[in-house]
Each structure stands twice: as C-alpha cells, then as structure tokens.
Design a protein that fits this description.
There is one protein chain. With about 120 residues, this protein is mainly α. It has one domain (about 10-120). The protein contains three helices and no strands. It has helices at about 10-45, 50-85, 100-120. The longest helix has about 35 residues, at about 10-45. The model has no long low-confidence stretch (mean pLDDT about 85).
Length: about 120
Amino acid sequence: MSDISDPRVLFAAERTLMAWNRTSISLMAFGFVIERFGLLLRIAGMGEAKIFHRDVSFLMGLAFILLASFLSIYSARQHNRIIKTLKPVEIPAGYNIALGMITSMTVGVFGLLLSVYLVYGFL
C-alpha cells in the first residue's frame, strides 16, 4: 500500500507507463527500419556482401522489435502491480485505469505479430 492519499501517484505511474510505451514504439520502429535496410541493400544489388548484410540487418532488426515487445508487455505488468498497491481514494471516480495497460499490451502484441510477419517474409 502507498502512504500518500493523492491521485498524483496514479498519474505519475501512468506517465511512467506511457514513457515506456513511447520507448517501445521507438525501438520497434528503429528495428523495422534496420530490418528493411537489408532488403534495400539486396534490391540495390550491393555485390557479394548483400546476403551477409541482409542476414545481419534482419537479425538486428528482429532483436530490436522483440526487445520492444518485451518492454511494452513487461511495463504493463509492472504498472498493474503498482495500481494494485493504490488505495481507492488515490483513484479518481470514474477514471479508467486499464486503458494505459491495454494500450501497452496491444503495442507488445502488435510487435510480436510484426516479428512473425518479418520472419515469414524472410524465409
């Protein structure tokens, strides 16, 4: 249980969750760009190194996307743990505390689906 009966604690937790969500989305976008860069090299016909670059960029991009998915899902779970410690007086009446967690989990699931799509396209 928290010791402060103030709704600002909830809002601080939600700001932290949204910061992790933005970080996850940025990492996911960066991973996608890295993965597609290898495809660009292959299309441009960059000589013998094109297969090596395609494999490396695919693995690095996929790693960033999976990291982003993990962070998004884990941050939602962590936020849920924090919410459970709050007293009812710290949550404003009628406020939907699940929306941030749902958003973060959705981003994580979309990242996993993107990973499956990229692996399927790579094979």
